[in-house]
Write a structure and sequence with these properties.
Oligomer: single chain
Order of helices and strands: HHHHHHH
CATH architecture of one domain: Alpha Horseshoe
Structural class: mainly alpha
Radius of gyration: 24 Å
Distance between the termini: 84 Å
Strand content: under 5%
CATH class of one domain: Mainly Alpha
Length: about 170
């Protein structure tokens, strides 16, 4: 009986020791040498392909551009190539993978909304553009571009009054 109490006591001590809060250890960053800034695109936004690799803030003129991780750039390039070849399904799949990596990137949501609009999925395109607006945070140009997508999606769904409202918000 005494041995079983000692065993129980030791087991409880081990459990308690395992539950003790330890200070977090600092982990080494995954990407140590990512470029701090990306050169802004020299192409006008109106002629830019919807999935051209860019930073999260490149549409905003008042903030410095932040470089996207290499995986995002690769997926955006894949989506752009697929879009140019007419493979809208692959373009959407590449953008969805990019969103899984960087879900708060409003540019990715916007690009996917544009692809869904081209796939004649206006309800989904509108929802994706709204999601982009949630993450755009002060990026007025991107927010206006999203409202333009919403206006077109509503027009395709037959909601002309909603389309006019969205066009007003887009500044058209």
């Amino acid at each position: 009986m005494i041995k079983s109490r000692h065993g129980l006591f030791i087991a409880l001590l081990l459990i308690q020791a395992a539950c003790v809060n330890r200070p977090p250890t600092r982990q080494k960053p995954l990407f140590e040498s990512l470029p701090e800034h990306e050169e802004p695109s020299t192409r006008p936004e109106s002629r830019r392909s919807p999935v051209q690799p860019r930073s999260e803030t490149s549409r905003s003129g008042n903030r410095a551009a932040v470089a996207a991780p290499p995986a995002i750039i690769a997926l955006q390039s894949e989506a752009e190539a697929s879009l140019e070849s007419g493979d809208l399904d692959n373009a959407a799949a590449a953008l969805e993978r990019a969103i899984r990596i960087q879900p708060r990137n409003p540019e990715l949501w916007h690009d996917l909304a544009e692809v869904r609009l081209k796939q004649e999925q206006p309800g989904l395109a509108e929802d994706l553009a709204k999601k982009s607006n949630l993450h755009a945070k002060g990026n007025v140009e991107l927010i206006r571009a999203n409202w333009a997508i919403i206006a077109e999606a509503r027009r395709l769904k037959g909601d002309l009054e909603g389309a006019e409202d969205a066009e007003d918000k887009a500044g058209h």
